[in-house]
């Protein structure tokens, strides 16, 4: 039994280390092992939706149920909107890695996120602690492709006031990852495809002198291609024009209009064609499981999975559509874009708020954040001790650690990063990130965990 446990753990560790790292160069993703362009072929994955919130990456039975269908579709990425940062995700993440599947994770939960109605209050120390707790959990996995700092926060004129706070979360999260010595993971934003704000939002989140306050990737939730539409009858042609000089990877974080059922998914051939590859890097179909909004590819009933015609159509489209050869005509330029001009439709300050005082110790890597999972209700926690900077009570950085039940060893990594957590923070112009390279490097934490496990067995 003991030997079997060791073999199982070794198998999972091997799978986690075997999956190639993904990096950003210019406006594209790249496989660092093969040096080939990486296109996202994926689905949005949150069984139960927001009404019956569950963490699909913390339940091994759920993962084992669904991964064979991911493989049948031929996908390489899933997007998960909410996870419980108090739970262990080792087995699901390792099994996904074994299947060659990456994860894009939204770091927010329904009650721990920036709100449109009171962004200033919801941007507080307790909220950031939840964000950092989720990030530190998933930073250890090589198949964590990226983090979304926000989803559709900006969708009308009234919500524009929230934009600086979302950008502050991007800065805080990237600074936290750097100062903790974790591998660099792209941080981005997922935007509603609203004509008035789609481009301006992208430019805003990707502008400014502070590299740590700029996104590394940008997702668009686009449902403009319905039935047998075309590049011109959908918004695709306009988006290609708008984003032709955008300097970070762009992809559809949701797509798949359901006005016509079953969905033919004829847009797949365009998304993965040379017509779009100079600007877009694939996309994620909304969504895997059938929920109240009727976008599902499968119906779930306990352990039973029933694919529908949408699933079959998507599978056929993926099977017959190859990625463009070569580099896809990607944009090699790096660095940010110019900030959008102010107008009657876009009146957003370029100044972003300083990090709340109580979160500075986490951002600087001096203290380890503790998450409260789906029990975290922090959007109104804007008073009390949140504004007190107590980072002076800590004397040294804590380095990068594994944070799971299966892997408890602490790595010897540390970081010399000392980026400011205010709106004036900056990075060295000589860094790889300023060269447009965001590397998802190979993690060693699983190996350390394995050695610790074997040492424990030997001691017994």
From TrEMBL:
Molecular functions per Gene Ontology: 1,3-beta-glucanosyltransferase activity
Protein localization: Cell envelope; Cell membrane; Membrane
Membrane topology reported for the UniProt record: Lipid-anchor; GPI-anchor
Swiss-Prot/TrEMBL keywords: Glycoprotein, GPI-anchor, Lipoprotein, Membrane, Signal, Transferase, Transmembrane, Transmembrane helix
Single Gene Ontology BP annotation: fungal-type cell wall organization
Stretches that traverse the bilayer: 437-459
Keyword Transmembrane helix: yes
Main location: other
Annotated signal sequence range: 1-18
EC number: 2.4.1.-
Biological role stated in the UniProt entry: Splits internally a 1,3-beta-glucan molecule and transfers the newly generated reducing end (the donor) to the non-reducing end of another 1,3-beta-glucan molecule (the acceptor) forming a 1,3-beta linkage, resulting in the elongation of 1,3-beta-glucan chains in the cell wall.
Family: Belongs to the glycosyl hydrolase 72 family.
Matching PANTHER family: 1,3-BETA-GLUCANOSYLTRANSFERASE GAS1, 1,3-BETA-GLUCANOSYLTRANSFERASE GAS5
Protein name: 1,3-beta-glucanosyltransferase
Organism in which the protein naturally occurs: Candida orthopsilosis (strain 90-125)
